[in-house]
Amino acid sequence: MSEFDFDCAIVGSSPLLMMLALKLQKSGKSVVLFEAEQNFGGAWQNEHVEGIGLVECACHLLEWYAGGYELLARLSGCKFVASDPQPVRIYRDGTVEPYTSRNKIAAALYHELRGFATSLVRLLFSKGRTWSDRVKTVESKRNSLLFYLRFRLRGAKQFDAIQRPALGFTHFVDNLANKVSSSGIRVINAKVDSVSDEEDSAVLGYSDQKVRVKKIFLGESSIIDDMRNQSDVAKEPYHHLVVGVPANSVEIRSDYIHLPDDQLFHRITYLRDIDNDDNRTEALFLVQLRDQTAGENQDAIRDLFLRCRIIISNMTYVQVHKTFTKSYFGRASSVLYLDSLRSVRYVRTIGDLARNVVIEPEFREHAAKQPRKLVLSPKTVGLMVGSAIMAGAAYIIGITPDLIADILP
Description:
Blueprint: E1 3-11, H1 15-26, E2 31-34, E3 46-49, E4 53-56, H2 68-76, E5 80-82, E6 88-90, E7 96-98, H3 102-107, H4 109-125, H5 131-153, E8 163-165, H6 169-182, E9 186-188, E10 194-198, E11 201-206, E12 209-219, H7 220-227, E13 235-246, E14 257-258, E15 265-270, E16 282-289, H8 298-307, E17 319-329, E18 344-347, H9 353-359, H10 378-396, H11 401-407
Parallel strand pairs: 1-2, 1-12, 2-9, 6-14, 12-18
Antiparallel strand pairs: 3-4, 5-8, 6-7, 10-11, 11-12, 13-16, 13-17, 14-15, 15-16
Helix pairs in contact: 1-6, 2-9, 4-5, 4-10
């Protein structure tokens, strides 16, 4: 049985975990990274499609957070540019609205205040949950409000545009994987079977072998996936199509389209980095499905592309080149399995990558300060009452975030 000694172990290869491994290695620590699959990237991994090349397996969008794009560019070594045109939401009735704007960022204060106020009311009056659980909910909502104030509302005047990697998301992930492979980080392609504490270190077991490390960094979804076999936790399947249409029939090549109220389709992204090939006669798009059967209906896909003004004629052909079905653990998955181990630290990997980067403590220059435990001081009680009154009044008189966004200058 072989043993290798490292300062840090990273379990998983999502972009954030790869950037974390590079940051730790650059600071002088020895790092080993475990990845069960051959392709790096986790939910961001690329896959080779015959006749096309590397294709991202999921639709990606990096939301705006103060300092987020700059931090991503510095950690990944990739240049970031504004998406053109900017991401949009398109509704069934044809309404088109920006995915993010300064007004929407400011208007989201209503959601944060209402969520915090609701948790405070439940803390004082709810009888369905324990006091400890209610306090944890208040702390979570408080942390969310503080994060919003620091990384969204403050600096919102400087918001200009949602950005993306200049050479595309496939290059972004591929570049990170290449940097990890060439940096001196030990990469082990194996599934981690066990984790245990031993005195001042931790031991990870894999394929009848062990590695002893000082610190383990785990992604939220990789914990259950790699080290917990629990039948009551189900993976959520995500279905995507690589769709080609004639390049000369394309009207709008939007980097990201969100379809909030469509029952068949969820998102569309333009595979811009693939279409840099001057010899390609097709424009390629990645479509995420809500209903798997929609991928078999070319008329429905054509109607979708017409409604989103991607193509200009209902006579345009659409061709499905590839179908991806990837399964991941959702947000509700428990991550409490290894809480008792001193050497384990969870890394937030579920949700928006830009958000997770700016709150990651290892990236000290942009890390959010950890709020103290909730204390029911007179100041806190005053904040409770004020927040409850403000959010309750707004709700009663019918003020919504969209209404706030419309009336803001």
